[in-house]
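Long-time lurker, first post. I've been practising inverse folding by hand and with some scripts of my own, and I keep getting stuck on stretches where the structure tokens seem ambiguous. Below is the full token string for one chain I'm working on. Before anyone asks, I'm not after the true native sequence, just a reasonable design that respects the backbone. If someone could post their per-position residues I'd love to compare against what I wrote down in my notebook.
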């Protein structure tokens, strides 16, 4: 508890000293509060009337059974949102290691402070109204209380610990973790589209029997918490990936240098991406998005083709979009350091283009998997996506980045990403153009 009190006091002090969030203008705080209410009000109202909506849409089914069957899907949703927007807690532990504080208490405190986020508020707003309207009146007080505790444990604690654990595992064993995530995503996609829908049935069993669900939630949270503490403790030790590269890595980089245009610069930047934990995570995020959303799109071709093409157009870039923003300066504070090399600007631009083209290669190679289910006109739209990504978006990222790059922050000590500015917003219309083209073509009937 002592470690948690120290960490919480420091967190509050840092927040109060932050000129953007803590001591900003009153008008700015009012605007932020207004935005938060705009997000939370419809979310809470939708949760409150969810039972009535389900009864209108599915009069022959039990609304309570439908709610119980869908509750478990909130866990991967909140876990993914935390994973993409919330930094892992171990990044802030190192300054406290030399202090006379219990190491276990320190790690437990960091894991607990990860729960203090906007994601927790969203989870409570989603779970609370539907519980008050549907569950509290359908179960006994003991059963309703067990349902609520189990739901909050799974959507808040398990989602937070799972996202933090995923961050740490990707930092230590990126390819194995990414492969495991791909296998899990494909299993869930196949289960939802082709299989017996086991995940929904498991959710219905857990929340249909509140006592069993509470016991399962406690066991799951306890197991993930123990694994998270072990991974956080290992993260404080020397990173094993900082040693010399393996023979296979050396051979790969040598092949890149000899084969690709501006190969030496491409290999140099690839090494930096591979050895920088934040950049490596961004690249793996992009690959994970391609796997998950292409799996969802492939399952959707059996139903709504337009929705599948929308997902492909929106998430087909993979690592290129994130790395294009962060590595090449639209949203990175230290990106100028990448250009401090004794090379001609023409070669730097060529290497940047080649690297970003490599980033869209996974999504492009997966496009032929959709051709058997599409008409020739719809297949031509996929070719248009590939041409748009490679011929429009990649050059646009390289062109816009130097013009929107912020000055180097010489006082910063880590590779930081600025998310509080509108830098790079000029590229968003280019990114959304394929996604907008799909509904327009579908509504007009002119693929």
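-- Answer (accepted) --
I ran through it position by position. Result:
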């Amino acid at each position: 508890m002592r470690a948690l009190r120290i960490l919480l006091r420091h967190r509050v002090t840092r927040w109060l000293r932050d000129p953007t969030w803590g001591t900003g203008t009153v008008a700015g705080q009012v605007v932020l509060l207004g935005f938060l209410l705009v997000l939370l009000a419809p979310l809470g109202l939708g949760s409150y009337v969810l039972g009535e909506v389900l009864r209108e849409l599915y009069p022959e089914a039990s609304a309570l059974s439908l709610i119980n069957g869908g509750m478990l899907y909130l866990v991967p949703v909140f876990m993914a949102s935390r994973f993409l927007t919330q930094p892992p807690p171990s990044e802030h532990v190192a300054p406290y290691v030399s202090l006379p504080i219990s190491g276990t208490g320190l790690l437990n405190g960091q894991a607990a402070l990860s729960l203090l986020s906007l994601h927790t508020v969203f989870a409570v707003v989603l779970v609370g109204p539907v519980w008050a309207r549907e569950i509290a009146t359908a179960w006994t007080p003991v059963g309703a209380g067990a349902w609520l505790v189990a739901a909050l444990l799974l959507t808040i604690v398990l989602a937070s610990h799972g996202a933090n654990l995923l961050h740490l595992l990707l930092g230590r064993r990126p390819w194995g973790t990414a492969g495991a995530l791909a296998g899990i995503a494909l299993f869930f996609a196949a289960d939802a589209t082709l299989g017996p829908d086991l995940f929904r049935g498991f959710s219905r069993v857990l929340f249909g029997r509140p006592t069993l669900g509470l016991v399962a939630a406690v066991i799951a949270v306890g197991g993930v918490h123990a694994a998270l503490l072990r991974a956080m403790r290992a993260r404080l030790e020397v990173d094993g990936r900082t040693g010399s590269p393996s023979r296979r890595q050396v051979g790969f980089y040598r092949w890149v240098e000899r084969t690709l245009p501006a190969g030496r610069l491409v290999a140099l930047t690839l090494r930096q991406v591979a050895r920088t934990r934040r950049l490596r995570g961004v690249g793996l995020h992009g690959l994970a998005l391609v796997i998950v959303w292409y799996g969802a799109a492939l399952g959707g071709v059996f139903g709504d083709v337009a929705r599948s093409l929308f997902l492909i157009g929106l998430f087909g870039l993979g690592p290129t979009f994130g790395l294009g923003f962060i590595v090449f300066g639209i949203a990175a504070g230290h990106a100028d350091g990448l250009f401090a090399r004794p090379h001609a600007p023409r070669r730097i631009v060529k290497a940047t283009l080649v690297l970003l083209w490599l980033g869209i290669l996974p999504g492009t190679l997966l496009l032929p998997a959709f051709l058997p289910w599409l008409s020739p006109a719809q297949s031509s739209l996929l070719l248009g996506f590939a041409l748009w990504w490679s011929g429009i978006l990649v050059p646009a990222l390289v062109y816009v980045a130097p013009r929107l790059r912020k000055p180097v922050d010489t006082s910063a000590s880590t590779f930081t990403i600025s998310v509080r500015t509108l830098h790079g917003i000029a590229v968003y219309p280019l990114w959304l153009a394929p996604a907008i083209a799909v509904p327009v073509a579908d509504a007009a009937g002119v693929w």
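A couple of notes from the structure itself: The two ends are 62 Å apart (CA to CA). The mean pLDDT is 77. Happy to go over any region you disagree with.
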